[in-house]
Amino acid sequence: MISSPDRMPLPRDFFDRPVLEVAPELLGRTLVRRTPDGPMELRLTEVEAYAGDVDPGSHAYRGRTARNDVMFGPPGHVYVYFTYGMWHCANLVCGPEGLASGVLLRAGEVQVGAELARKRRISARHDKELAKGPARLATGLAIDRTLNGADVCAAGDAPLSVLAGTPPLPEQVRSGPRTGVGGAGAHQPWRFWIDGDPTVSPYRAHAPRRRRT
Predict the structure, then answer these.
(1) Cα-trace Rg, the chain
(2) What's the CA gap between 44 and 131, in Å, rounded?
(3) Structure confidence at residue 213 (pLDDT)
(4) For residues 170 and 142, what is the distance between their CA atoms, to the nearest angstrom?
C-alpha cells in the first residue's frame, strides 16, 4: 500500500539544515507518539528555535554537558529535558552534528488519541488545551526523559516520528520573541506559530525568579 504524501515520514536531511529553516517548516507536521496504550498524533502549531553556542537562550550556549549531550549529536533525534522539578519538554535536534541546535515543540492539536491525552492532562478544560504549551504537550503525549535521544527518523514503529502532515500557507505563519527567554536572547523573533490557531500558547515575557529571603 502506498502512503499518501501527508503520511510520509520526514527524512533526516529535513532536520540536517540550519535551525531557522527547520523551525517554521515544522508547523503543520504530524508528531506521532506510539505508546503501549495506543498511538497519539499531534499537528504542530507552535515551535521555538534555539541556535546552540551562538544563542544565549539555548541550553548548549555554554558547551556540552551530560544534560544537553543529545543536542550535539546527529539531527533527527529528540532532546528531552526536565524543568522546574516538575515538567518535561521535547525538542527536535537539527543542523549538522556538533552544532547543538534544536526546535522546542511548544504546542499542537491532538488529532488522534485525544482520549489517551485526556487521561494525562486531567486539568485541561477542553481538547484545545491538551497540548497548549511545551510541558502540556510532553505530558499529554507521555514524553519524558526515557525518550531522550530517540530517533524520529528510525524505520518501523519508533516511539516518536514526524510525518509530512499539512504545512500552513506562508502567510499563515507568524514569528515573534520566544516565550520566557531573558537576557541577550530575549528579543530574537525565533518563535513561530500558525496564526489564529486556538491551540497556540499565549506569549509570556521572561520574569526573573525571585530568591526567597
Answers:
(1) 16
(2) 9
(3) 47
(4) 31
The average confidence (pLDDT) of the chain is 93
Q: Do residues 30 and 164 touch, judged by C-beta distance below 8 A?
A: yes
Neighbouring C-beta atoms of residue 79, cutoff 10 Å = 27
**Average pLDDT, integer, range 66-82:** 95
pLDDT of residue 36 exceeding 90: yes
Give the integer Cα–Cα distance in Å for 81 and 131.
17
Residue closest to 144 by CA, chosen among 85, 67, 82, 84:
82
Short-list 183, 192, 208, CA closest to 25: 192
Contact 146, 161 (CB under 8 A): no
E strand segments, the chain: 30-35, 38-50, 78-83, 87-94, 101-112, 160-163, 173-176, 191-194
Of the candidates 152, 149, 150, 151, the residue with the CA atom closest to the CA atom of residue 163? 152
Contact residues for 154 (Cβ-Cβ < 8 A; gap 6+): 161
Task: Tally Cβ neighbours within 10 Å of residue 171.
Answer: 7
> Which three three-digit cell numbers place residue 121?
492532562
pTM: 0.93
Reference 132, options 110, 152, 115; nearest CA is 110
